[in-house]
Design a protein that fits this description.
- The complex is a heterodimer of chains A (221) and B (281).
- A five-stranded mixed β-sheet of chain A has the order 2-1-3-4-5.
- Chain A contains eleven helices and five strands; from the N terminus they run H-H-H-E-H-E-H-E-H-H-H-H-H-E-E-H.
- Chain A folds into two domains: 37 residues; 175 residues, Beta-carbonic Anhydrase, Chain A (3-Layer(aba) Sandwich), CATH 3.40.1050.
- By secondary structure, chain A is of the alpha/beta class.
- Chain A is 52% helix and 14% strand.
- Chain B is globular, with a radius of gyration of 22 Å.
- Chain B has a five-stranded mixed β-sheet.
- With 281 residues, chain B is α/β, with parallel strands linked by helices.
- In chain B, helix 10 crosses helix 11 and helix 11 packs across helix 13.
- Chain B contains 15 helices and five strands.
- Classes of the chains: A alpha/beta (221), B alpha/beta (281).
- At the A-B interface, helix 2, helix 3, helix 4, strand 2 and helix 5 of A face helix 2, helix 3, helix 6, helix 7 and helix 8 of B.
- Chain B: Pfam families: Pro_CA.
Chain lengths: 221, 281
């Protein structure tokens, strides 16, 4: 690991060249196809954490997954950044699946549970405290601190999925095309494995639409 | 996972890891409408194209029988590939996961585009734990954006990264959109900084061919992003106090190669920036 961490930018350019050679060696047209455009099946919304690289953990190649990563994989309702990503991925790229992926040992979630003033980070992390408040009874009933922390990480993913489903783009596309389907995952750093939280997309969509419906028969198709 | 639910999407079936490729997609006769949609075609409403890719039309060359033998749909295959990756990584780097579980000390913060063709850790030839990442539409850095602001703050102040990279790329859909004039709803306010750069460089951009102009805007957008990064107090302090480096890169999706821009500021620029933006506790 130390060797890996002591890379200079020069080494990185060498790594990049090696990667290019490995790709063109296996498939000389690899980059020509990418140059023609992208049509990924997935939008991945995950944490910025360096230990959770989207393509690696999903075993996917360049061109296969559209990626947004922020602190603690949040989907705040008023965040123009993530809302633009969802809009573009659904309406222009027509992704078939949207994956919100959290991970255990998330520093962002931990920070949100810590009584400390983190300046600029406060408003961002406050969204996680809101998730705690929404599930206060369940979380308070978990005696073991690390189990409670893990559960909050899962509930935070579920809440982000719910916020994805609140968007007009997702509701209208699903009505017209039966995609995208939204999934919630958690990545476990200890063994590198993904856990599907089985959020129950259709039931969640139905529930969300009761109040947040932004789709009607009159919408453009 | 609700496999039954997923199984109704034949557009995603019959693409095993082995046969899957962008070329394979064409040979299966799946309409490649979204391939060109990144250009924001002005003639067709953006929503229309998806109808061509509905399950019925995309099954043309795929018999249901193939589905079973090919290892089912792309979604379950991603979860399966994760298991393979985890096992292989544990074999090749037995210390990696135990080390990752104890914390992260990345040296690099990557601010790049969400585009699927720009997977940072992969194209840098690095491993999990090496690169802290924020990716958004067209790698735009709005000065007041809390999302990228929180990422930069956390990476610089808490993780103490040594390098910040702002990376743009060729054939960027966001840049193409900002070079056009089609109304795009919520994307419009997001793309606004690109239009500001376009406005400031209108004569230069108009003197170039469309392709050259788009590439120029990619570069100017990276430079703009670097300015926004270097206007943050935490970044300025880290540059001065511990030698944090800030880099501008362009990634060529057509060749896979990274190119570093010359982003050396003149002493006068640095002086003005420090005067206007440096803050103390």
């Amino acid at each position: 690991m130390n060797r890996l961490r002591q890379h200079s930018l020069e080494q990185i350019f060498n790594n990049n060249k090696k990667w290019v050679l490995s790709k063109t060696g296996a498939d000389p047209a690899f980059f020509d196809k990418l140059a023609a455009g992208q049509s990924p099946d997935y939008l991945y919304i995950g944490c910025s954490d360096s230990r959770v690289p989207a393509n690696e953990i999903m075993g996917l190649e360049a061109g296969e997954v559209f990626v947004h990563r922020n602190i603690a994989n949040l989907v705040p309702n008023v965040d123009l950044n993530v809302m633009s990503v969802i809009n573009y991925a659904v309406r222009h790229l027509k992704v078939k699946h949207i994956i919100v992926c959290g991970h255990y040992n998330c520093g962002g979630v931990k920070a949100a549970l810590t009584p400390a003033d983190l300046g600029l980070l406060n408003p961002w992390l406050r969204n996680i405290r809101d998730v705690y408040r929404l599930h206060e009874k369940e979380l308070d009933a978990i005696a073991d601190e690390s189990a409670r922390y893990n559960r909050l990480i899962e509930l935070n993913v579920v809440e982000s999925c719910r916020n994805v489903i609140k968007t007009a783009a997702v509701q209208q596309s699903y009505r017209d095309n039966q995609f995208p389907i939204v999934h919630g995952w958690v990545f476990d750093l200890r063994d590198g494995l993904l856990k599907d939280l089985d959020i129950g997309f259709e039931a969640m969509l139905k529930d969300v639409m009761k109040i947040y419906s932004l789709s009607s028969d009159k919408d453009p198709k | 996972m609700n496999v039954a639910r997923l199984a109704v999407r034949p557009s995603a079936v019959a693409r095993t890891t082995e046969v899957y490729s962008l070329a394979g997609r064409q040979s299966m006769n799946v309409p490649s409408v979204s391939r060109s949609s990144f250009k924001f075609s002005t003639s067709t409403p953006a929503y229309c194209a998806s109808h061509k890719a509905t399950p019925t039309s995309s099954t043309a060359n795929t018999s249901p029988g193939q589905t079973d033998t090919s290892g089912a749909d792309r979604f379950s295959s991603a979860l399966r590939q994760n298991k393979e990756w985890a096992a292989q990584t544990a074999r090749e780097h037995p210390d990696l996961f135990p080390t990752l579980a104890t914390g992260q000390q990345p040296q690099i913060l990557w601010l790049g585009c969400s585009d699927s063709r720009c997977p940072e850790t992969t194209l840098l030839g690095l491993k999990p734990g090496d690169v802290f990442v924020h990716r958004n539409i067209a790698n735009i850095l709005h000065p007041g954006d809390l999302s990228s602001g929180a990422v930069i703050e956390y990476a610089v102040e808490h993780l103490r990264v040594k390098h910040i990279v702002v990376c743009g790329h060729t054939a960027c859909g966001g840049v193409a959109a900002a070079m056009g004039n089609k109304q795009l709803g919520i994307l419009d306010p997001w793309l606004l900084p690109l239009r500001l750069v376009r406005e400031r460089n209108l004569a230069l951009l108009q003197s170039l061919s469309p392709d050259e102009a788009a590439l120029k805007l990619v570069e100017l957008n990276v430079r703009e992003g670097l300015d926004v990064v270097k206007q943050k107090g935490a970044v300025l302090s880290a540059i001065q106090e511990r030698g944090l480096q800030v880099h501008g890169l362009i990634y060529d999706v057509g060749s896979g190669v990274l190119r570093e821009l010359d982003t050396q500021d003149s002493e006068e620029v640095i002086r003005s920036r420090l005067t206007a933006f440096a803050t103390q506790a």
